[in-house]
Amino acid sequence: MSAPFEERSGVVPCGTPWGRWYQTLEEVFIEVRVPPGTRAKDVRCSLGSRHISLAVCGQELLQGKLFDSTVTDEGTWTLEDRQLIRIVLMKTNRDAGNCWTSLLENEYAADPWVQDQMQRKLTLERFQRENPGFDFSGAEISGNYSKGGPDFSSL
What we know:
Blueprint: H1 5-9, E1 14-16, E2 19-23, E3 27-33, E4 43-47, E5 51-56, E6 59-65, E7 76-80, E8 84-90, E9 102-104, E10 107-109, H2 112-130
Antiparallel strand pairs: 1-2, 2-3, 3-8, 4-5, 5-6, 7-8, 9-10
C-alpha cells in the first residue's frame, strides 16, 4: 500500500507565534511548541465542534472559535518528545472546496500565498481520491482550482 497523499506531497503550513497549522481534505493539524520537559499533566486541552482551548502550565496558548465545524469525538491531542503538542481535528465538511482560510474565526489566517497553495494542495488531493490509479503528489495545478477545482464527475 502506498503512503498517504500528504506524506508523498508534503504539507502547506501556516506559521503562528506558537507553532503552525495545516490541513488536508479531512483533517486540520495543529502543532504547538511547548517548553522542553512538559508533561501531559501540565496540559489542559478542550476540543469542541467549533471551539478549541489549550493551556500549558496554566498559561493559555490557544483559545477561540474554530474557522469551521469539526467532529468532536474524533479530535485528539498528543504530547511528543515532551516539547510539541500535536492536535488533530476531523473536518465535518470534507470536500476540496472547504479550504480553511484561518484556524480560528478571526485569528491565525493564512497569508494569500499560503492560502493559494493550500487550495491547490486540496484540489490535487481531491483529484488523487477520484483517480486512485494516478499519483498527483508531485503535480502542479494552474487555472480554476478555487473551491476545489472543476468538477469532472459528469464527463
